[in-house]
Amino acid sequence: MKDAAANKKPASAGLLNIVKTYSFVLVFLVIYIVYASVSGGFALGAAMNVFRHSAVIGVIAIGMGIVCLTGDIDLSVGSMLAFVAGFSVVVFNQTNSIPLTLLFAVLFGALCGLINGVLVGIVQMPSFIVTLATMLIYRSLSQYACQHIPAELIGNGSSVFRMSNALDSYQAFYAFGNGKVAGIMPVVGLIMVLMVALFVYICTSTKFGKKIYAVGSNARAAHLAGINVSAMRTLVFVIAGALVGLGAFLWIAMNASADPATTGKSYEMYAIAAVVLGGIAMSGGKGRILGVLFGAMSYTVIDKIIIALKMDSLINDTIKGVILIVVILIQVAGPQLKARFGKSKVVK
Question: What residues form the membrane-spanning segments (predicted)?
């Protein structure tokens, strides 16, 4: 009898642990059910649109996720998106080459990330201050360049980087950004899913991934274990920058332009929100990259719910901000409550 009772506890505890571990899936499903209810049904097209609209922020949020896993933060990703996207348009207009544009976007993004990484990892400056500064720098440089680069290089746009539709590759590039696989799955959404799968593998099945978690859990212990903490902190910012570069490439493929004033605006907040909704702890060392996918899609669906309810657009960010505060509050208060009530049970 006692053995049977003892066996039941681990089973229920295991189920509870699975629910807690993958709670981000349940959160997404609940949010999507609410969206389907207010928008009038579970249409496949609407579901696939979630992947499309989540693609850029989802790719950027992967980079934000690994930065947060090390205990740092990157506030520059939105401005970096505008900066990289603008110059990627210039490269496309000059080369008429989609592969070269992709290569430039990823490398230029990695270079911007390297600047952040060196200042944070090598110089040992706080990531919040560094990326707050580069957020201002990248946005400013993007706007300045758009005003001073010859008009033909920016597609003869007015204060906007615009791909030239006279180029041979223009239609193919735009079709790529707005195309679908088998007429169902958006190409950009599929790229997001593949990138999530790649980084889930990296973070769970490689030594590099284990080092990321080790640095975020306890940097001093990681250093004593032989991990080059400075190099790791630098490298995650480089990777985050490269992912912003990929996001910039997808952005211009979808929109054929980049406005230095508005492209990527508030994307740093959206990326952080995707990371938090996905269950990654801002303190570092805890969470799963898979959660970022569901976090990004959850935030996209929240936006769609607000639109479906025809709420004033001016209140949009207020609602998102409140949701972000609530989720972080749960992250912070949950362990504290567990510890408190756990001690109470032990005393009894």
Answer: 22-43, 50-69, 75-93, 100-123, 183-203, 235-254, 266-282, 321-339
